[in-house]
Design goal:
- The complex is a heterodimer of chains A (285) and B (253).
- Chain A has 285 residues and is mainly alpha-helical.
- Chain A has one domain.
- Chain A has 14 helices and one strand.
- In chain A, α9 runs antiparallel to α12 and α12 crosses α13.
- Chain B is of the alpha/beta class and 253 residues long.
- Chain B has two domains: 134 residues, Rossmann fold (3-Layer(aba) Sandwich); 86 residues, no CATH class.
- A six-stranded mixed β-sheet of chain B has the order 5-6-7-3-8-9, sandwiched between helices. A three-stranded antiparallel β-sheet of chain B has the order 2-1-4.
- In chain B, a hairpin with a 2-residue loop joins β8 and β9.
- The chains are: A mainly alpha (285), B alpha/beta (253).
- β1 of chain A pairs antiparallel with β4 of chain B, so a sheet runs across the interface.
Chain lengths: 285, 253
């Protein structure tokens, strides 16, 4: 055969499966081998999302923009929020961006396994790629919408600082938190379809526990203890500090610490849950 | 070294008699009590052991529900063994569904790549084959269009062209694939033969006993999730046919 030479240099895959334990949650070598599948699925998710919409990819920008307008109206007129002198629209947009990335990742990942049941029952590939691709697709939207914030800062003449260079770290931490919830909820959604119906409410409530549209807990005159308790929600501390990095305002290191630890715990918990239900995906889905 | 080895493998599915129970039923009808909604364990495979090595052409026969597909899916990695040990060494590719995972909104070219990645190929390994796949499918400029505009026959042809262009070390096939119109069928047949010859190890399940005898070096007869007989194709197929004839006679009487 003409292709026999390409076959010999391709990496040998080895699958050695004993009853339990060996289904590791993160077989990094295997995931790397399937990276092209990940790109394709993420790209597919992006395409499917804007399929048959008139505005197409513009929705990636419009969604946070419309939310910004709504919240600006609500908070600027009705409830005053102390933003450290930063114009409220810019301020709220900087908080909504990571929030929308985080929440879209999770709600789309939740349904990712159930939506791909025809693949799961017919071919082997690392299942974790499915929720991961949902996050990848949301990250793409996030990157597009990020351009808008740069324009807004120029428009309003908001200064930034060198701390903006730290943003990739916060994006990574938010991705880690989202990944933890994504694997946890997508795995559960296979066994309990109820999860899917709970998600919209959960996301709504979650938004109000997250300082995307308001400032830190201090401005609401909550005690330090309460604000640290709120940081158990990974989105809380991460988004707070994400915004601080953009505007060069003061970081809340304690909140960041609590949220990062919490994100790591969710990631591990999600991973263990996923691994436990993964074995049974093919027969219960 | 290419190898498929199963040692005392059991695959069980747990099914509740009343299926998934809603919360209302759970509380009101007492479905949480085991007696009311017993867990039924289905033994899809029981104590299956065999080994296959390079050069083996393994055929799997048996009537519907005997565990053929489960066995194939176990080897392919779709189902994990409930107990026992499974060892599969070598690049494995399974052919259960020709139109597996096609994206209707993506073009033919994109779908070729997608399917290849699903089967564990990389851009490097699939790149040189793209043109060959396109040529074989005879779809020409249709490949630039989304699959949405393809006819059923065209989709099958594309699926078949991709599936058979990938040359795994271990090939797992459920039923020999029939594809498209007569002219394409002859081409397809030849292509399947080629694929069989290039793979180091083939596991094939089929109801076509003549084809099995012709293609396989060893045949496994599955019956109620266990291996009833394993050995030379002619012997096993003869025993299987005899049993089937007997059952038909029983039904007639």
């Amino acid at each position: 055969m003409a292709d026999s030479d390409t076959r010999t240099d391709s990496p040998k895959s080895q699958m050695l499966v004993a009853p339990s334990n060996t289904w590791r949650f993160l077989d990094l070598r295997e995931l790397w081998r399937y990276r092209e599948l990940f790109y394709f699925l993420a790209w597919r998710d992006v395409k499917v999302r804007y399929k048959q919409t008139i505005l197409g990819g513009a929705w990636a920008v419009l969604q946070p923009l419309l939310m910004m307008v709504a919240f600006t109206f609500m908070f600027q007129r009705i409830a005053k929020v102390d933003t450290n002198g930063i114009p409220y629209p810019v301020y709220v947009f900087a908080g909504l961006l990571p929030w929308i990335y985080f929440s879209n990742s999770i709600s789309q990942a939740t349904n990712s396994l159930v939506a791909s049941q025809n693949l799961i029952t017919k071919v082997y590939f690392p299942r974790v790629i499915l929720p991961a691709a949902s996050i990848g697709a949301s990250l793409f939207d996030f990157a597009i919408a990020f351009g808008v914030i740069a324009v807004m800062m120029l428009w309003y003449g908001v200064p930034t600082s060198f701390t903006i260079l730290l943003l990739p770290i916060f994006v990574m931490l938010i991705s880690l938190a989202a990944a933890g919830f994504a694997v946890l909820l997508s795995g559960l959604a296979v066994a309990y379809r109820d999860v899917r119906y709970v998600m919209p409410f959960l996301v709504q409530a979650w938004l109000f526990l997250t300082p995307s549209v308001y400032t830190s807990a201090e401005s609401l005159q909550l005690s330090r203890a309460v604000s640290l308790l709120l940081a158990v929600n990974p989105a809380h501390g991460l988004i707070l500090n994400f915004r601080a990095a953009i505007f060069g305002t003061e970081f809340d290191a304690a909140c960041l610490g609590v949220s990062t630890a919490s994100a790591a715990m969710v990631f591990i918990l999600g991973g263990i849950t996923f691994r436990r239900v993964e074995r049974r995906f093919a027969d219960i889905i | 070294m290419v190898k498929v080895s199963l040692q005392n493998v059991n695959v069980q599915f747990e099914v509740r008699r009343h299926g998934r129970v809603t919360l209302k039923e759970y509380v009101l009808k007492g479905m949480f009590r085991r007696k009311r909604n017993p867990v039924i364990t289905v033994d899809a495979l029981r104590d299956v052991s065999f080994e296959a090595h390079e050069g083996d052409r393994l055929g799997v026969i048996g009537h519907n529900g005997a565990g053929k597909s489960t066995l194939l899916k176990l080897i392919a990695g779709v189902y994990p063994p409930t107990t026992g040990k499974r060892e599969v060494v070598g690049r494995t590719s399974s052919l259960f569904d020709v139109t597996l995972g096609f994206e209707l909104d993506a073009s033919g070219w994109e779908n070729i790549k997608y399917r290849a990645y699903l089967l564990g190929e990389t851009p490097r390994s699939i790149g040189p084959k793209m043109k060959e796949i396109a040529d074989f499918s005879e779809l020409g400029e249709y490949l630039d269009m989304p699959l949405r505009y393809y006819s059923t026959g065209m989709i099958v042809r594309l699926g078949f062209s991709i599936a058979t262009a990938i040359h795994p070390e271990i090939l797992i096939v459920d039923e020999v694939l029939g594809a498209g119109d007569k002219a394409f069928l002859a081409k397809a047949r030849q292509r399947m033969d080629e694929m069989f010859q290039t793979a180091s190890l083939v596991v094939l399940a089929s109801h076509d006993l003549n084809a099995m005898e012709e293609l396989c070096s060893r045949v496994i007869w599955m019956d109620h999730g266990t291996i009833r007989e394993m050995g030379k194709p002619s012997d096993v197929i003869a025993a299987y046919s005899a049993q089937q004839a007997e059952q038909t006679a029983k039904l007639a009487a």
